[in-house]
Amino acid sequence: MSEGLQTIGIDVGGTKTAAVRISASGAVLARETLPTPADDMQATLETTVRAARAVLTPGVRAIGIGAAGLVEAGTGRLTFAPNLAWRNVSLVEHMWEAVGLPTIADNDNNVAAWAEFRLGAGRGRSHLLFVGVGTGIGGGIVADGKLFRGAHGFAAEIGHIVVEPGGPLCGCGNHGCWEQVASGHAVTRAGREAARQHPQSMIARRCEGDPARVTGPLVTECARAGDPVARGILAQVGRRLGEGIAGLVNVLDPEVVAVGGGVAAAGEFLLEPARAAFVGAVEAAAHRPAVPIVAATLGTETGAIGAAMLALDELT
Ligand SMILES: [Zn+2]
Questions:
Q1: Is 278 strand, coil or helix?
Q2: What is the CATH number of domain 124-182+230-296?
Q3: In the predicted model, what is the mean pLDDT of the chain?
Q4: What is the mean pLDDT of residues 48-68?
Q5: Distance between CA 61 and CA 51 in Å, rounded?
Q6: How many CB atoms are closer than 10 A to CB 40?
Q7: What is the spatial distance between Cα 178 and Cα 202, in angstroms, rounded to a whole number?
Q8: Most buried of 47, 153, 156, 219 (most Cβ within 10 A)?
Q9: Integer CA distances (angstroms), 302 to 169, 198, 270, 278, in order
Q10: How many Cβ atoms are within 10 Å of 255's Cβ, its own excluded?
Q11: What was the pLDDT predicted at 106?
Q12: Coil, strand or helix: which one is 63?
């Protein structure tokens, strides 16, 4: 692997498309971010190509794409995105035709897991579980130093395990999926409820009495400012997160669990209760090595860096 080798990674999210060009050691050499026209699939494909071209140089050898949805292994075909209007589109073919470089595509949380494994919280380990907590919950599994994709590339859709039958309706069509009770959805829902029930609370004051204006970041802000109601909401969601992680650790036995995504900005308000619930819920906690549950380390570019790293590792 020569040091001059460079790859591009693109993270196609519901609101923005982020591209980076990295060196073989993972250093970001160039970056571009464009808004995603998520309701128009053709325009989204064109945006992906535009983002790639913005950071493209003659030294680039391959392109990796991470997309929020089910991405078929081998073909790089995006078959379904629970929260977006994308169906059956070949990200790889489109990029290849436009730019002429070898391209891979994978799920956005799979590439984020790869970034944490190669450069972040899982560096030097062989087994990592990545839990991306944003509006929903996505996952990525590295087992024995390899990304675990399952038979079709659809593995690690951890947010859609039903943990509360008859619970809130999920974007996937089921009720009571884990991502409905342990992600941004849950924080927002509980924050709105608190604003209605406690008109004197900090959350109610900051949303100026309009519960519909409560967002996850607003709840986190209130928690940081010392509001016990907001801290209680994050602790409750953190506990549900920790219980779910316990089930996944029972199945996967990772060395480390990295928690990323937008809601991870709540930091220890979320992670501390998650760790406590995890120890209570994992099988035989006293008879197994501790599994650290840590914040992911690579920040908002994790997906794009991971996609570029995966292209580097698999295509060069
Ligand atoms: Zn679901």
A1: helix
A2: 3.30.420.40
A3: 94
A4: 96
A5: 16
A6: 13
A7: 28
A8: 219
A9: 29, 37, 20, 25
A10: 15
A11: 95
A12: strand
Q: Is the pLDDT of residue 84 over 80?
A: no
Going from N- to C-terminal start, the domains of the chain cover: 6-115+301-315, 124-182+230-296
Q: Which spans in the chain are helix H?
A: 41-55, 91-99, 108-119, 178-181, 184-197, 202-206, 216-224, 228-252, 268-281, 302-315
At 276-314, the pLDDT tens digits run 999 999 999 999 999 999 999 998 899 999 999 999 999
Strand, coil or helix: 302? helix
Q: What whole-number distance in Å separates Cα of residue 215 and Cα of residue 191? A: 7
Residue 47 gets the label, from left (phi > 0), alpha (psi -120 to 50) or beta, of alpha
CA of residue 237 to ligand 1 center, whole Å: 17
How many angstroms does the Cα of residue 195 sit away from the middle of ligand 1? 26
From the list 51, 50, 49, the residue with the least C-alpha distance to 97 is: 49
Fold observed for domain 6-115+301-315: Nucleotidyltransferase; domain 5 (3.30.420)
Tokens of 236: 């409750």
- Expressed in angstroms and rounded, the spacing between residue 179 Cα and the centre of ligand 1 is 7
Instruction: Name the 3-class secondary structure at 16.
Output: strand
Size of the chain in residues: 316
Same fold for the domain at 6-115+301-315 and the one at 124-182+230-296?
yes
Q: Give the residue from 181, 140, 189, 136 showing the smallest Cα distance to 162.
A: 181
CA–centroid distance, 158 to ligand 1, in Å, is 9
How far apart CA 307 and CA 82 sit, in angstroms, is 21
Tell me the pLDDT tens digit for each residue of 92-124: 999 999 999 999 999 999 999 999 999 999 999
